[in-house]
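Go through the following before class.
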Amino acid sequence: MPYLVECLASVEAQTIDPARMEVIAVDDGSTDGTGEYLEEFADRAPMPVTVIRQDNSGGPSGPRNVGLGKAAGRYVFFLDADDRLGPEALERMVAMADKNGTDVVLGKVEGINRIPPKSMWGKTLDRTDVFSSNIKFTLSAQKLFRRALLEKHGMRFDESLWTGEDALFTMEAYLRADGVSV
């Protein structure tokens, strides 16, 4: 819960027009007031917010798949409660995908209480792939994905995995993508 407050504050602080965003928040059986806070956020947020409350699924794949199933936008971005977005993050990533026609966009990551991988962010790459860049060293789900790519290939997170599910999903997206931007 304490992480969620900062996460949603970073969503509200985005410079992209709130009318161009939708938030789908999946409360996966929390018992710490998260569901109630999400409902309050939905009531006051400047963008459309859908709150889904469900019994605990035991891992991140189920909630991500539920949210993905409800998504209607051109792009999706998976944001965990302990993640934060820089103010221009979504605006910049969407602009990069639109400019280059790429299916996946990696935004620069900064660590909070940990050191993130660095080798893939040496320079901006308008268009690359998994074979000619270091993107393979970042396989977390916190990327911008073109929803049409995910739908075309029926891509979902493997709910039988408790860890590493995002690595499989992201690598599949890299391999199927019509270009990746960094």
Notes: The chain has a mean pLDDT of 92. The CA atoms of residues 97 and 105 lie 6 Å apart.
